[in-house]
Protein backbone atom coordinates (compact mmCIF):
# COMPACT_ATOMS: atom_id res chain seq x y z
CA UNK A 1 0.00 0.00 0.00
CA UNK A 2 2.96 2.33 -0.48
CA UNK A 3 1.62 4.20 -3.51
CA UNK A 4 -0.97 6.97 -3.37
CA UNK A 5 -4.51 5.72 -3.95
CA UNK A 6 -7.87 7.38 -4.47
CA UNK A 7 -11.09 6.23 -2.82
CA UNK A 8 -14.18 7.89 -4.28
CA UNK A 9 -17.79 7.62 -3.12
CA UNK A 10 -20.51 8.83 -5.46
CA UNK A 11 -24.27 8.41 -5.31
CA UNK A 12 -23.86 5.22 -7.30
CA UNK A 13 -20.74 3.42 -6.12
CA UNK A 14 -17.56 3.19 -4.08
CA UNK A 15 -14.44 3.01 -6.24
CA UNK A 16 -10.75 2.68 -5.49
CA UNK A 17 -8.50 4.06 -8.23
CA UNK A 18 -11.50 4.02 -10.55
CA UNK A 19 -12.42 0.36 -9.95
CA UNK A 20 -15.48 -0.84 -7.97
CA UNK A 21 -14.44 -1.55 -4.36
CA UNK A 22 -16.37 -3.44 -1.69
CA UNK A 23 -15.14 -2.57 1.78
CA UNK A 24 -14.87 -5.76 3.86
CA UNK A 25 -14.02 -4.38 7.27
CA UNK A 26 -13.91 -5.53 10.87
CA UNK A 27 -13.76 -3.51 14.06
CA UNK A 28 -10.77 -3.94 16.36
CA UNK A 29 -9.95 -1.30 18.94
CA UNK A 30 -6.22 -0.88 19.49
CA UNK A 31 -6.84 0.25 23.07
CA UNK A 32 -8.52 -3.04 24.03
CA UNK A 33 -5.62 -5.29 22.98
CA UNK A 34 -1.98 -5.05 24.04
CA UNK A 35 0.34 -3.72 21.30
CA UNK A 36 2.44 -6.89 21.31
CA UNK A 37 -0.72 -8.77 20.25
CA UNK A 38 -1.81 -6.46 17.43
CA UNK A 39 0.12 -8.27 14.65
CA UNK A 40 -1.42 -11.63 15.56
CA UNK A 41 -4.99 -10.30 15.70
CA UNK A 42 -4.65 -8.24 12.51
CA UNK A 43 -3.13 -11.13 10.58
CA UNK A 44 -6.09 -13.31 11.58
CA UNK A 45 -8.58 -10.66 10.48
CA UNK A 46 -6.87 -10.56 7.10
CA UNK A 47 -6.93 -14.37 6.97
CA UNK A 48 -10.68 -14.31 7.62
CA UNK A 49 -11.03 -12.46 4.31
CA UNK A 50 -11.26 -8.83 5.44
CA UNK A 51 -9.49 -6.09 3.52
CA UNK A 52 -9.96 -3.33 6.14
CA UNK A 53 -9.87 -2.82 9.92
CA UNK A 54 -11.90 -0.15 11.72
CA UNK A 55 -11.10 1.54 15.03
CA UNK A 56 -12.42 4.26 17.27
CA UNK A 57 -10.07 6.74 18.97
CA UNK A 58 -10.89 7.34 22.69
CA UNK A 59 -10.17 10.95 23.63
CA UNK A 60 -10.04 10.18 27.38
CA UNK A 61 -7.21 7.67 26.91
CA UNK A 62 -5.11 10.12 24.91
CA UNK A 63 -5.73 13.27 26.98
CA UNK A 64 -6.24 12.06 30.58
CA UNK A 65 -5.58 15.59 31.88
CA UNK A 66 -6.16 18.85 30.01
CA UNK A 67 -3.25 19.47 27.66
CA UNK A 68 -1.42 16.26 28.66
CA UNK A 69 -1.44 14.06 25.55
CA UNK A 70 -0.17 10.51 25.19
CA UNK A 71 0.26 8.33 22.11
CA UNK A 72 2.23 5.45 23.64
CA UNK A 73 1.39 1.90 24.70
CA UNK A 74 -2.32 1.19 24.44
CA UNK A 75 -2.67 4.75 23.06
CA UNK A 76 -0.29 4.22 20.11
CA UNK A 77 -2.85 4.70 17.35
CA UNK A 78 -0.11 5.39 14.79
CA UNK A 79 1.63 2.13 15.65
CA UNK A 80 -1.67 0.31 15.24
CA UNK A 81 -2.27 1.79 11.79
CA UNK A 82 1.25 0.76 10.80
CA UNK A 83 0.64 -2.78 12.07
CA UNK A 84 -2.61 -2.92 10.09
CA UNK A 85 -0.80 -1.84 6.93
CA UNK A 86 1.86 -4.49 7.48
CA UNK A 87 -0.94 -7.07 7.79
CA UNK A 88 -2.31 -5.99 4.38
CA UNK A 89 -5.32 -4.10 5.74
CA UNK A 90 -6.76 -0.71 4.93
CA UNK A 91 -8.14 1.26 7.89
CA UNK A 92 -11.26 3.22 8.80
CA UNK A 93 -10.72 5.69 11.65
CA UNK A 94 -13.53 7.02 13.86
CA UNK A 95 -12.04 9.86 15.96
CA UNK A 96 -15.22 11.05 17.66
CA UNK A 97 -14.81 13.18 19.74
CA UNK A 98 -17.54 10.90 21.12
CA UNK A 99 -17.25 7.18 20.38
CA UNK A 100 -19.79 5.31 22.59
CA UNK A 101 -18.13 1.85 22.20
CA UNK A 102 -19.28 0.75 25.68
CA UNK A 103 -16.20 2.72 26.77
CA UNK A 104 -16.04 4.90 29.89
CA UNK A 105 -18.01 8.13 29.26
CA UNK A 106 -18.14 7.33 25.54
CA UNK A 107 -14.50 8.37 25.27
CA UNK A 108 -15.06 11.91 26.57
CA UNK A 109 -12.57 12.86 29.32
CA UNK A 110 -14.01 13.09 32.83
CA UNK A 111 -12.47 16.54 33.20
CA UNK A 112 -14.46 17.90 30.26
CA UNK A 113 -17.18 19.90 32.02
CA UNK A 114 -19.19 20.78 28.93
CA UNK A 115 -20.07 17.40 27.41
CA UNK A 116 -22.84 18.72 25.26
CA UNK A 117 -21.81 17.58 21.77
CA UNK A 118 -23.06 20.79 20.18
CA UNK A 119 -21.63 24.04 18.82
CA UNK A 120 -21.23 25.62 22.28
CA UNK A 121 -17.74 27.22 22.19
CA UNK A 122 -16.96 25.74 25.62
CA UNK A 123 -17.21 22.30 24.03
CA UNK A 124 -15.65 23.14 20.68
CA UNK A 125 -12.47 24.66 22.16
CA UNK A 126 -11.16 21.51 23.89
CA UNK A 127 -12.33 19.37 20.96
CA UNK A 128 -10.35 21.59 18.62
CA UNK A 129 -7.27 21.35 20.81
CA UNK A 130 -7.57 17.55 20.84
CA UNK A 131 -8.08 17.34 17.07
CA UNK A 132 -5.05 19.59 16.53
CA UNK A 133 -3.00 16.83 18.17
CA UNK A 134 -4.75 13.80 16.68
CA UNK A 135 -5.93 14.53 13.15
CA UNK A 136 -2.55 15.37 11.53
CA UNK A 137 -1.34 11.94 12.71
CA UNK A 138 -4.28 10.30 10.92
CA UNK A 139 -3.97 12.53 7.85
CA UNK A 140 -0.34 11.48 7.34
CA UNK A 141 -1.52 7.86 6.97
CA UNK A 142 -4.28 8.34 4.40
CA UNK A 143 -4.30 6.27 1.21
CA UNK A 144 -3.99 9.54 -0.68
CA UNK A 145 -0.53 9.93 0.89
CA UNK A 146 0.58 6.33 0.46
CA UNK A 147 -0.83 5.08 3.76
CA UNK A 148 -3.80 2.84 4.53
CA UNK A 149 -6.53 5.09 6.00
CA UNK A 150 -9.53 4.88 3.63
CA UNK A 151 -12.22 6.86 5.45
CA UNK A 152 -12.71 9.06 8.53
CA UNK A 153 -15.92 9.41 10.52
CA UNK A 154 -17.61 12.66 11.60
CA UNK A 155 -18.75 12.31 15.25
CA UNK A 156 -20.49 8.98 16.03
CA UNK A 157 -24.15 7.90 15.91
CA UNK A 158 -25.00 11.54 16.46
CA UNK A 159 -28.64 11.03 15.54
CA UNK A 160 -29.04 8.97 18.73
CA UNK A 161 -28.12 12.08 20.71
CA UNK A 162 -28.77 15.38 18.93
CA UNK A 163 -29.63 17.29 15.77
CA UNK A 164 -27.03 20.10 15.72
CA UNK A 165 -26.01 20.21 12.07
CA UNK A 166 -23.98 23.37 12.71
CA UNK A 167 -21.85 21.25 15.06
CA UNK A 168 -21.50 18.39 12.56
CA UNK A 169 -20.42 20.79 9.81
CA UNK A 170 -17.93 22.42 12.17
CA UNK A 171 -16.36 19.01 12.84
CA UNK A 172 -16.34 18.03 9.16
CA UNK A 173 -14.70 21.29 8.09
CA UNK A 174 -12.21 20.98 10.93
CA UNK A 175 -11.20 17.51 9.73
CA UNK A 176 -10.63 18.82 6.21
CA UNK A 177 -8.75 21.87 7.48
CA UNK A 178 -6.43 19.59 9.47
CA UNK A 179 -5.58 17.53 6.38
CA UNK A 180 -8.24 14.86 5.87
CA UNK A 181 -8.89 14.39 2.16
CA UNK A 182 -10.22 10.81 2.10
CA UNK A 183 -14.04 10.47 2.23
CA UNK A 184 -15.79 11.55 5.42
CA UNK A 185 -18.84 9.66 6.63
CA UNK A 186 -21.46 9.46 9.37
CA UNK A 187 -23.00 6.31 10.88
CA UNK A 188 -26.45 6.03 12.47
CA UNK A 189 -29.30 3.65 13.00
CA UNK A 190 -31.76 3.39 10.13
CA UNK A 191 -34.69 4.97 12.04
CA UNK A 192 -35.73 8.33 10.56
CA UNK A 193 -35.21 10.07 13.92
CA UNK A 194 -31.54 9.09 13.83
CA UNK A 195 -30.93 9.61 10.11
CA UNK A 196 -32.43 13.10 10.05
CA UNK A 197 -30.59 14.14 13.19
CA UNK A 198 -27.19 12.62 12.53
CA UNK A 199 -26.47 13.06 8.82
CA UNK A 200 -25.52 15.92 6.49
CA UNK A 201 -26.49 16.02 2.78
CA UNK A 202 -22.89 16.59 1.69
CA UNK A 203 -21.37 13.79 3.86
CA UNK A 204 -21.59 10.08 2.99
CA UNK A 205 -24.06 8.35 5.35
CA UNK A 206 -23.84 4.74 6.52
CA UNK A 207 -26.23 2.56 8.53
CA UNK A 208 -25.87 0.47 11.69
CA UNK A 209 -27.92 -2.67 12.39
CA UNK A 210 -27.68 -6.31 13.43
CA UNK A 211 -30.53 -8.01 11.56
CA UNK A 212 -32.81 -7.78 8.51
CA UNK A 213 -30.36 -6.11 6.08
CA UNK A 214 -32.97 -5.62 3.36
CA UNK A 215 -35.39 -3.91 5.76
CA UNK A 216 -32.80 -1.61 7.31
CA UNK A 217 -31.25 -0.60 4.00
CA UNK A 218 -34.74 0.13 2.63
CA UNK A 219 -35.61 2.28 5.64
CA UNK A 220 -32.33 4.17 5.36
CA UNK A 221 -32.90 4.70 1.64
CA UNK A 222 -36.16 6.54 2.32
CA UNK A 223 -34.01 9.48 3.39
CA UNK A 224 -30.55 8.76 1.93
CA UNK A 225 -29.58 7.29 -1.44
CA UNK A 226 -25.89 6.65 -0.69
CA UNK A 227 -24.13 3.41 -1.69
CA UNK A 228 -25.13 0.80 0.86
CA UNK A 229 -22.70 0.36 3.74
CA UNK A 230 -23.46 -1.23 7.12
CA UNK A 231 -20.83 0.52 9.24
CA UNK A 232 -21.76 -1.50 12.32
CA UNK A 233 -23.07 -4.98 11.62
CA UNK A 234 -23.75 -6.07 15.19
CA UNK A 235 -22.74 -9.71 14.90
CA UNK A 236 -22.56 -10.10 18.70
CA UNK A 237 -23.27 -8.00 21.77
CA UNK A 238 -21.77 -6.80 25.03
CA UNK A 239 -22.65 -7.79 28.60
CA UNK A 240 -23.76 -5.91 31.70
CA UNK A 241 -23.07 -7.07 35.24
CA UNK A 242 -26.01 -9.11 36.49
CA UNK A 243 -27.15 -10.26 33.04
CA UNK A 244 -26.51 -13.42 31.03
CA UNK A 245 -23.61 -13.58 28.57
CA UNK A 246 -24.78 -12.72 25.06
CA UNK A 247 -24.08 -15.00 22.08
CA UNK A 248 -25.43 -15.29 18.55
CA UNK A 249 -25.66 -18.40 16.42
CA UNK A 250 -22.71 -18.41 13.94
CA UNK A 251 -24.78 -19.77 11.08
CA UNK A 252 -27.50 -17.15 11.61
CA UNK A 253 -25.13 -14.15 11.49
CA UNK A 254 -23.09 -15.68 8.63
CA UNK A 255 -26.33 -15.88 6.63
CA UNK A 256 -27.02 -12.20 7.37
CA UNK A 257 -23.48 -11.28 6.34
CA UNK A 258 -24.03 -13.16 3.09
CA UNK A 259 -27.20 -11.14 2.46
CA UNK A 260 -25.34 -7.86 2.95
CA UNK A 261 -22.50 -8.83 0.64
CA UNK A 262 -24.77 -10.30 -2.03
CA UNK A 263 -26.35 -6.85 -2.43
CA UNK A 264 -22.93 -5.45 -3.27
CA UNK A 265 -22.98 -3.50 0.00
CA UNK A 266 -19.90 -2.82 2.06
CA UNK A 267 -19.73 -3.93 5.69
CA UNK A 268 -17.89 -3.42 8.94
CA UNK A 269 -18.25 -6.24 11.46
CA UNK A 270 -18.81 -4.82 14.92
CA UNK A 271 -16.84 -6.43 16.47
CA UNK A 272 -14.34 -8.58 14.56
CA UNK A 273 -12.11 -8.74 17.64
CA UNK A 274 -13.45 -7.26 20.86
CA UNK A 275 -10.65 -7.40 23.40
CA UNK A 276 -10.84 -6.19 27.01
CA UNK A 277 -11.95 -3.14 29.01
CA UNK A 278 -8.78 -2.98 31.08
CA UNK A 279 -8.57 -0.93 34.26
CA UNK A 280 -11.48 1.44 34.86
CA UNK A 281 -12.49 1.88 31.22
CA UNK A 282 -15.63 -0.27 30.96
CA UNK A 283 -18.58 2.04 30.38
CA UNK A 284 -22.24 1.73 31.32
CA UNK A 285 -25.71 2.21 29.93
CA UNK A 286 -28.88 3.73 31.29
CA UNK A 287 -31.85 1.46 30.71
CA UNK A 288 -35.32 2.20 29.43
CA UNK A 289 -36.73 3.01 26.02
CA UNK A 290 -35.08 6.44 25.97
CA UNK A 291 -31.78 5.36 27.58
CA UNK A 292 -32.33 7.48 30.70
CA UNK A 293 -33.28 4.82 33.25
CA UNK A 294 -31.62 2.32 35.54
CA UNK A 295 -27.81 2.22 35.66
CA UNK A 296 -26.34 -0.81 33.79
CA UNK A 297 -22.52 -1.12 34.13
CA UNK A 298 -20.61 -3.07 31.48
CA UNK A 299 -18.37 -6.03 32.34
CA UNK A 300 -14.59 -6.10 31.92
CA UNK A 301 -14.55 -8.52 28.98
CA UNK A 302 -15.36 -7.04 25.58
CA UNK A 303 -15.32 -10.44 23.90
CA UNK A 304 -18.56 -9.38 22.16
CA UNK A 305 -19.03 -12.94 20.86
CA UNK A 306 -16.82 -11.78 17.98
CA UNK A 307 -15.21 -13.99 15.29
CA UNK A 308 -11.91 -13.64 17.20
CA UNK A 309 -12.35 -14.27 20.91
CA UNK A 310 -11.14 -11.94 23.65
CA UNK A 311 -7.84 -13.86 23.71
CA UNK A 312 -7.54 -13.95 19.90
CA UNK A 313 -8.72 -17.47 19.06
CA UNK A 314 -10.74 -18.01 15.85
CA UNK A 315 -14.26 -19.10 16.82
CA UNK A 316 -16.94 -21.00 14.91
CA UNK A 317 -18.16 -17.59 13.75
CA UNK A 318 -14.71 -16.88 12.27
CA UNK A 319 -14.80 -19.98 10.08
CA UNK A 320 -18.43 -19.36 9.03
CA UNK A 321 -17.55 -15.79 8.02
CA UNK A 322 -14.44 -16.90 6.15
CA UNK A 323 -16.59 -19.18 4.02
CA UNK A 324 -19.04 -16.35 3.24
CA UNK A 325 -16.29 -13.80 2.54
CA UNK A 326 -14.61 -16.29 0.24
CA UNK A 327 -17.53 -15.94 -2.16
CA UNK A 328 -16.72 -12.25 -2.63
CA UNK A 329 -12.94 -12.00 -2.36
CA UNK A 330 -9.79 -14.06 -2.78
CA UNK A 331 -8.93 -15.59 0.58
CA UNK A 332 -5.44 -15.63 2.09
CA UNK A 333 -4.20 -18.93 3.58
CA UNK A 334 -6.23 -19.91 6.62
CA UNK A 335 -4.67 -19.60 10.09
CA UNK A 336 -3.95 -22.60 12.26
CA UNK A 337 -6.95 -24.35 13.79
CA UNK A 338 -4.86 -25.61 16.70
CA UNK A 339 -5.68 -23.86 20.00
CA UNK A 340 -2.82 -21.88 21.51
CA UNK A 341 -1.41 -23.30 24.75
CA UNK A 342 -2.36 -21.40 27.92
CA UNK A 343 -1.08 -21.34 31.49
CA UNK A 344 -1.71 -24.56 33.38
CA UNK A 345 -4.61 -24.51 35.81
CA UNK A 346 -3.80 -24.12 39.46
CA UNK A 347 -4.48 -22.34 42.74
CA UNK A 348 -2.48 -19.53 44.35
CA UNK A 349 -2.69 -18.59 48.00
CA UNK A 350 -2.57 -14.93 49.00
CA UNK A 351 0.29 -14.32 51.41
CA UNK A 352 -0.29 -10.72 52.53
CA UNK A 353 -3.20 -8.43 53.40
CA UNK A 354 -3.32 -4.65 53.72
CA UNK A 355 -6.39 -2.64 54.69
CA UNK A 356 -7.22 0.20 52.31
CA UNK A 357 -7.96 2.51 55.25
CA UNK A 358 -4.56 1.75 56.82
CA UNK A 359 -2.66 2.93 53.74
CA UNK A 360 -4.47 6.09 52.67
CA UNK A 361 -1.25 8.02 53.26
CA UNK A 362 0.30 6.04 50.38
CA UNK A 363 -2.71 6.14 48.05
CA UNK A 364 -4.52 9.43 48.58
CA UNK A 365 -3.63 12.43 46.45
CA UNK A 366 -4.23 14.63 49.51
CA UNK A 367 -6.99 14.99 52.11
CA UNK A 368 -9.64 17.56 51.23
CA UNK A 369 -11.77 19.21 53.92
CA UNK A 370 -15.19 20.36 52.83
CA UNK A 371 -18.55 21.33 54.32
CA UNK A 372 -20.28 18.96 51.89
CA UNK A 373 -19.19 15.80 50.07
CA UNK A 374 -17.46 16.59 46.81
CA UNK A 375 -17.70 14.69 43.54
CA UNK A 376 -14.74 13.00 41.89
CA UNK A 377 -14.65 15.76 39.30
CA UNK A 378 -14.52 18.45 41.99
CA UNK A 379 -11.63 16.52 43.54
CA UNK A 380 -9.76 16.50 40.21
CA UNK A 381 -10.14 12.73 39.97
CA UNK A 382 -11.43 10.60 37.10
CA UNK A 383 -11.57 6.99 38.33
CA UNK A 384 -11.00 4.74 41.33
CA UNK A 385 -12.27 5.36 44.87
CA UNK A 386 -12.87 8.22 47.28
CA UNK A 387 -13.00 7.86 51.07
CA UNK A 388 -15.43 10.24 52.81
CA UNK A 389 -15.29 10.67 56.63
CA UNK A 390 -17.84 12.62 58.65
CA UNK A 391 -19.57 12.57 62.07
CA UNK A 392 -23.19 12.16 63.12
CA UNK A 393 -23.85 13.60 66.60
CA UNK A 394 -25.70 11.91 69.48
CA UNK A 395 -27.40 10.73 71.47
CA UNK A 396 -29.98 9.56 68.97
CA UNK A 397 -31.40 6.32 70.36
CA UNK A 398 -33.90 5.87 67.55
CA UNK A 399 -32.53 4.12 64.45
CA UNK A 400 -33.04 6.79 61.82
CA UNK A 401 -32.13 6.32 58.12
CA UNK A 402 -28.65 7.47 57.09
CA UNK A 403 -29.10 8.18 53.39
CA UNK A 404 -26.55 8.87 50.65
CA UNK A 405 -28.22 10.84 47.85
CA UNK A 406 -26.86 10.75 44.33
CA UNK A 407 -24.54 7.82 45.03
CA UNK A 408 -22.41 7.13 41.94
CA UNK A 409 -21.95 4.26 42.17
CA UNK A 410 -21.33 2.03 45.20
CA UNK A 411 -20.25 2.53 48.81
CA UNK A 412 -18.93 0.44 51.66
CA UNK A 413 -20.25 2.10 54.85
CA UNK A 414 -18.27 1.81 58.09
CA UNK A 415 -19.55 3.09 61.43
CA UNK A 416 -16.75 3.76 63.90
CA UNK A 417 -14.50 1.65 61.68
CA UNK A 418 -16.83 -1.38 61.54
CA UNK A 419 -18.35 -2.34 58.16
CA UNK A 420 -22.11 -1.99 58.37
CA UNK A 421 -23.57 -1.98 54.86
CA UNK A 422 -22.98 -1.77 51.14
CA UNK A 423 -25.04 0.86 49.37
CA UNK A 424 -25.56 0.90 45.63
CA UNK A 425 -26.89 3.26 43.00
CA UNK A 426 -30.43 2.30 41.94
CA UNK A 427 -30.50 -0.06 44.93
CA UNK A 428 -30.37 0.36 48.70
CA UNK A 429 -28.96 3.81 49.46
CA UNK A 430 -29.62 4.07 53.22
CA UNK A 431 -29.16 2.17 56.47
CA UNK A 432 -30.71 2.55 59.93
CA UNK A 433 -28.41 4.36 62.35
CA UNK A 434 -28.75 5.12 66.06
CA UNK A 435 -25.94 7.05 67.77
CA UNK A 436 -24.60 7.12 71.34
CA UNK A 437 -24.00 10.35 73.24
CA UNK A 438 -20.54 10.83 71.74
CA UNK A 439 -21.86 10.41 68.20
CA UNK A 440 -20.28 8.17 65.54
CA UNK A 441 -17.78 8.45 62.72
CA UNK A 442 -19.21 7.57 59.32
CA UNK A 443 -16.80 6.38 56.61
CA UNK A 444 -17.93 5.90 53.03
CA UNK A 445 -15.57 4.13 50.63
CA UNK A 446 -17.15 5.09 47.32
CA UNK A 447 -16.33 3.30 44.08
CA UNK A 448 -16.88 4.90 40.68
CA UNK A 449 -17.88 2.38 38.06
CA UNK A 450 -18.14 3.24 34.38
CA UNK A 451 -19.73 6.50 33.28
CA UNK A 452 -22.74 6.13 31.01
CA UNK A 453 -21.54 6.02 27.42
CA UNK A 454 -24.80 6.34 25.46
CA UNK A 455 -27.90 8.48 25.52
CA UNK A 456 -29.11 11.66 27.22
CA UNK A 457 -27.42 11.09 30.60
CA UNK A 458 -23.87 11.08 29.23
CA UNK A 459 -21.51 13.25 31.24
CA UNK A 460 -22.51 12.19 34.73
CA UNK A 461 -20.43 12.91 37.84
CA UNK A 462 -19.05 10.28 40.21
CA UNK A 463 -18.83 9.97 43.97
CA UNK A 464 -21.43 11.44 46.35
CA UNK A 465 -23.19 13.79 43.96
CA UNK A 466 -26.01 14.82 46.32
CA UNK A 467 -25.23 14.68 50.01
CA UNK A 468 -25.62 12.63 53.18
CA UNK A 469 -28.63 12.95 55.51
CA UNK A 470 -29.53 11.49 58.89
CA UNK A 471 -33.28 11.36 58.49
CA UNK A 472 -33.99 14.88 57.03
CA UNK A 473 -30.89 16.52 58.52
CA UNK A 474 -27.89 17.08 56.25
CA UNK A 475 -24.52 15.91 57.56
CA UNK A 476 -21.87 18.62 57.18
CA UNK A 477 -18.12 18.65 57.72
CA UNK A 478 -16.25 16.02 55.66
CA UNK A 479 -12.69 14.87 55.17
CA UNK A 480 -12.24 13.29 51.77
CA UNK A 481 -9.31 11.25 50.45
CA UNK A 482 -9.23 10.82 46.66
CA UNK A 483 -7.81 7.37 45.80
CA UNK A 484 -7.45 7.26 41.99
CA UNK A 485 -5.54 3.92 41.98
CA UNK A 486 -3.67 4.86 38.82
CA UNK A 487 -0.69 3.15 40.45
CA UNK A 488 -0.32 0.70 43.33
CA UNK A 489 3.48 0.74 43.43
CA UNK A 490 3.49 2.62 46.72
CA UNK A 491 1.46 0.08 48.71
CA UNK A 492 3.27 -0.37 52.08
CA UNK A 493 3.30 -4.17 52.19
CA UNK A 494 4.47 -5.43 55.57
CA UNK A 495 2.83 -2.60 57.51
CA UNK A 496 0.74 -3.68 60.48
CA UNK A 497 -2.89 -3.54 59.42
CA UNK A 498 -6.14 -4.15 61.27
CA UNK A 499 -8.84 -1.84 59.89
CA UNK A 500 -11.98 -3.31 58.44
CA UNK A 501 -13.52 -2.70 55.07
CA UNK A 502 -11.88 -2.92 51.63
CA UNK A 503 -8.48 -4.59 51.59
CA UNK A 504 -5.58 -5.46 49.29
CA UNK A 505 -4.31 -9.05 49.00
CA UNK A 506 -1.09 -10.21 47.41
CA UNK A 507 -0.05 -13.46 45.76
CA UNK A 508 2.86 -14.68 43.65
CA UNK A 509 2.16 -16.31 40.30
CA UNK A 510 5.11 -18.45 39.18
CA UNK A 511 5.34 -18.92 35.42
CA UNK A 512 7.66 -21.35 33.66
CA UNK A 513 6.56 -20.43 30.15
CA UNK A 514 4.89 -17.11 29.31
CA UNK A 515 1.41 -17.76 27.96
CA UNK A 516 -2.10 -16.36 28.16
CA UNK A 517 -4.13 -17.30 31.22
CA UNK A 518 -7.39 -16.58 33.00
CA UNK A 519 -7.86 -15.52 36.62
CA UNK A 520 -10.88 -16.62 38.66
CA UNK A 521 -11.80 -15.48 42.18
CA UNK A 522 -14.29 -17.98 43.62
CA UNK A 523 -15.64 -16.85 46.97
CA UNK A 524 -14.59 -13.22 46.51
CA UNK A 525 -17.09 -10.37 46.20
CA UNK A 526 -16.16 -7.39 44.06
CA UNK A 527 -12.97 -5.56 43.19
CA UNK A 528 -9.95 -5.26 40.90
CA UNK A 529 -6.93 -7.37 39.96
CA UNK A 530 -3.44 -6.14 39.04
CA UNK A 531 -0.67 -8.24 37.48
CA UNK A 532 2.82 -6.73 37.77
CA UNK A 533 1.18 -3.34 38.35
CA UNK A 534 -1.20 -3.51 35.34
CA UNK A 535 -4.91 -3.25 36.15
CA UNK A 536 -6.73 -6.16 34.46
CA UNK A 537 -10.14 -4.71 35.36
CA UNK A 538 -13.12 -5.38 37.61
CA UNK A 539 -14.44 -8.69 38.90
CA UNK A 540 -17.82 -9.12 40.56
CA UNK A 541 -19.51 -12.22 41.90
CA UNK A 542 -22.75 -10.88 40.39
CA UNK A 543 -21.53 -12.23 37.02
CA UNK A 544 -21.94 -13.19 34.29
CA UNK A 545 -18.17 -12.88 33.80
CA UNK A 546 -16.23 -15.37 35.95
CA UNK A 547 -12.63 -15.09 34.70
CA UNK A 548 -10.44 -12.11 33.86
CA UNK A 549 -8.20 -12.39 30.81
CA UNK A 550 -4.47 -12.43 31.66
CA UNK A 551 -2.54 -11.55 28.45
CA UNK A 552 0.90 -13.06 28.00
CA UNK A 553 2.76 -9.74 27.40
CA UNK A 554 2.06 -8.78 31.02
CA UNK A 555 3.87 -11.84 32.37
CA UNK A 556 7.51 -12.75 32.88
CA UNK A 557 9.27 -16.02 33.59
CA UNK A 558 9.48 -16.73 37.29
CA UNK A 559 7.57 -14.78 39.93
CA UNK A 560 4.77 -12.38 38.96
CA UNK A 561 3.03 -10.06 41.40
CA UNK A 562 -0.75 -10.49 41.65
CA UNK A 563 -2.67 -7.94 43.74
CA UNK A 564 -6.40 -7.99 44.47
CA UNK A 565 -8.42 -5.12 45.92
CA UNK A 566 -11.53 -6.65 47.48
CA UNK A 567 -14.20 -4.04 48.16
CA UNK A 568 -16.62 -6.33 49.99
CA UNK A 569 -15.44 -9.38 51.93
CA UNK A 570 -12.51 -11.61 51.00
CA UNK A 571 -12.64 -15.35 51.75
CA UNK A 572 -11.29 -16.44 55.13
CA UNK A 573 -8.42 -18.14 53.30
CA UNK A 574 -8.05 -15.97 50.19
CA UNK A 575 -6.95 -17.89 47.12
CA UNK A 576 -6.99 -17.24 43.39
CA UNK A 577 -7.41 -19.70 40.56
CA UNK A 578 -5.55 -19.73 37.26
CA UNK A 579 -7.66 -21.40 34.63
CA UNK A 580 -6.69 -22.65 31.20
CA UNK A 581 -9.83 -21.37 29.46
CA UNK A 582 -12.14 -18.37 29.85
CA UNK A 583 -15.52 -18.44 31.56
CA UNK A 584 -17.71 -15.51 30.53
CA UNK A 585 -20.82 -16.91 32.19
CA UNK A 586 -24.12 -18.45 31.27
CA UNK A 587 -25.14 -17.57 27.74
CA UNK A 588 -28.30 -16.45 26.02
CA UNK A 589 -28.98 -15.96 22.35
TrEMBL record:
Transmembrane domains' residue ranges: none
Alphabetized SUPFAM superfamilies for the sequence: (Trans)glycosidases, Galactose-binding domain-like
InterPro entries, alphabetized: B-gal_1-like (IPR026283), BetaGal1-like_ABD1 (IPR048912), BetaGal_gal-bd (IPR048913), Galactose-bd-like_sf (IPR008979), GH (IPR017853), Gly_Hdrlase_35_cat (IPR031330), Glycoside_Hdrlase_35 (IPR001944)
Coiled-coil segments: none
Top-level taxon in the UniProt lineage: Bacteria
Pfam families xrefs: BetaGal_ABD_1 (PF21317), BetaGal_gal-bd (PF21467), Glyco_hydro_35 (PF01301)
Limits of the Beta-galactosidase galactose-binding domain: 502-560
Domain Beta-galactosidase 1-like first all-beta, first and last residues per copy: 373-483
Family note: Belongs to the glycosyl hydrolase 35 family.
This protein's name: Beta-galactosidase family protein
Lineage per the UniProt record: Bacteria, Bacillati, Actinomycetota, Actinomycetes, Streptosporangiales
Amino acid sequence: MAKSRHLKITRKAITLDGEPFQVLSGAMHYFRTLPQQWPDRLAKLRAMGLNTVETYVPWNLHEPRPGAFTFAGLADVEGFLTAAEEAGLYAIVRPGPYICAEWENGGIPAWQEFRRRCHDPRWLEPVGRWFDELIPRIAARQVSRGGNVLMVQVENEYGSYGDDHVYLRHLARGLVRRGIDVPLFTSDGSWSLMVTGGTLPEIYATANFGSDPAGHFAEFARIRDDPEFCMEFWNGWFDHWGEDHHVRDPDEVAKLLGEILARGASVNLYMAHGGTNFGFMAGANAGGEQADGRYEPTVTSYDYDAPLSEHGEPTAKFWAYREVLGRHTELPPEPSREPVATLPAGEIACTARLSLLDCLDALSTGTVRSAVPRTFEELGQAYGLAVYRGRVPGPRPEALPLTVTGLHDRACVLIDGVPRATLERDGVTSLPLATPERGVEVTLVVEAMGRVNYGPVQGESKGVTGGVRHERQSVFGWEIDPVPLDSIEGLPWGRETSAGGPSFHRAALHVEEVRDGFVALPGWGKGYVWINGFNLGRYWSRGPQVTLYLPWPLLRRGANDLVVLELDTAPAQPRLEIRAAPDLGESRS
